[in-house]
Structures are given as C-alpha cells and as structure tokens.
Amino acid sequence: METFGRRLRAAMDTRGPLCVGIDPHAALLARWGLPDDAAGLERFSFTVVEALADRVAVLKPQSAFFERFGSRGIAILESTIRQSREAGALVLLDVKRGDIGSTMAAYASAYLDPDSSLRADAITVSPYLGVGSLRPAFDAAAAHGGGVFVLALTSNPEGPSVQHAQTAAGRTVAQTVIDEISQLNAGASDLGSVGLVVGATIGRTGHDLSAVNGPLLAPGLGAQGGDPAGLAAIFGGSLRNVLPSYSREVLSAGPDAAALRAAAERAATACGAVIG
C-alpha cells in the first residue's frame, strides 16, 4: 500500500505544488449567481471538481460549508470527494477534528477508513487536547494509506496567544507540536504522511520546521493576504515540502470553468517559481 506522503509527492511533482479549497460559503454562492441552498452547493462544488480535479494536486473541501445543509449537504460532500479522487486529485478534507479516545477513533474511521463514504486521502486535525489524543487518526492513516495535517502555526489573530505560549520546558506550544510530528515522520522516505498546517501570512516566527519530514500545508494565499514570495521566509529549507493552498483567489474566478482553470494555473505557476 502506497503511503499518502508518497502519493502527495508524486502529485506535486507531476501536477505542480497547489491545493485549492472548495469553500462554498454564502458570499461565494451569491457571487456565482447561485442560491444559498443545497442545489447551489451542488452546482458550485461539481463545477470546481469538473474544472480542476484532473489538473491540481489537491482539492480541499471545507466540511462545515457542506454540513450546514444537513444530510443533503453531506451527500454532496460524499460525491465531491468521490468525483475528485476519480479524476486524480488527492482530497484533503478540512474538518479540524480533535477529541479523545473512542470519539477520536470514530472521527478517524469516518474520514480515513476505506469503507466510509466520506473517506478522504487526508484530514486536518487540532492538537489542543494534546498531540497524543490524535493517535487514533495517526493509526488509521497509517493502516489505510491516509494522511493527517495537524494545526501548528495558524494565521488567525487569536492563534499566537496559544501557539506561542511557553511550556515548562521552554519551548512554545507550537514548537512542541512540530517536534512531536517530526518524530512521527522520522525515517519516512520521500515524504512523511503526517503534516502540519502553517499559515502563509505568519512571517518569520523563529520556529524550526527543518526536521518535520512531512507536508506543510500553507493556507491563506491570494485573497487572504499571503504571497508566494513570502513562503521562503516562513519555511526556509523546507520549501520543497510546502503545499500552498488557495481558496477565494481561485474560486472567485468562477463559475466559468476555463476561468477557474486559468486562475489555478496562475497560482500554481507563482508558487512553483518559489518552491521549484
């Protein structure tokens, strides 16, 4: 069974280093001239999949924007995941789950078990009940060739008060998360399957990402203020492992499929010039 890290490396090398979010929030639906209901959600999501799933490395549906429409929204999410994967894109489901014990195991089963209709290639998780609480997700990913992206250094203004806080050992909370994930990826060839989420707008923070040996998701590029040129300052020698993520900058080009493709191509070219 091929690991997620190896599949991601191959996808980034062949399709370019780009992740595009599928974030069908009400304002974007309105911009596309779509109703803010399940029918609009379906049209939006399937247009993005049809335009981009055969050419970008990763598509990243934000689960909350599907969940708000109840069972119909979840059914559309299932179809979005399935069709994206069938077209060759890896699917990173943005769910940011974080819990303990059997509850975390249930989340892991829902999103990473091949028998689940919501099964994605990878998910996002929150470590703030302790990185060890995420063990069921790490185990499920390892068992089924999946991936896990752990929040580490986010770009929201509330993040630093927690992530930059000092532990008793003198490290920041974020550095503790980074170090624990680095241990999980130790010895992985090509690229480990446990990654980190590091915002593209955070600038230099003094945190050391050099030993992670896993993918580094960088959300916040484009309309959210991040610029590919700034990635070098954040990631330094780990640039080759960075997966830049765009949402509004690309999605706002819709609903025309050709315009979506052109926007994604511009983003991929800009990021490729920095990452190499």
Tell me what the CATH architecture is.
Alpha-Beta Barrel
User: If you average the pLDDT, what whole number results?
Assistant: 96
Based on the structure, what is the oligomeric state of the protein chains? single chain
CATH superfamily: Aldolase class I
- Structural class designation: alpha/beta
**Helix content range:** 40-55%
Shape: globular
Number of helices: 12
What proportion strand? 15-25%
CATH fold label: TIM Barrel
Low-pLDDT residue intervals, each spanning 5 or more residues: none
**How many E strands?**
8
The CATH class assignment is Alpha Beta
Distance between the termini: 28 Å
User: What is the element string, with H for helices and E for strands?
Assistant: HEHHEHHEHEHEHHEEHEHH
What gyration radius follows from the Cα positions, in whole Å?
A: 18 Å
Quick summary:
This is Orotidine 5'-phosphate decarboxylase. Keywords: Decarboxylase, Lyase, Pyrimidine biosynthesis. 44% of the residues lie in helices and 16% in strands.
Question: Notable features of this structure?
Answer:
276 residues; alpha/beta; TIM Barrel; eight-stranded parallel β-barrel; 12 helices; 8 strands; 44% helix; pyrimidine biosynthesis; Aldolase_TIM
What do you see in this structure?
The protein contains twelve helices and eight strands. It has 276 residues and is of the alpha/beta class. The protein has one domain (4-275): Aldolase class I (TIM Barrel), CATH 3.20.20. The protein is globular and about 55 Å long.
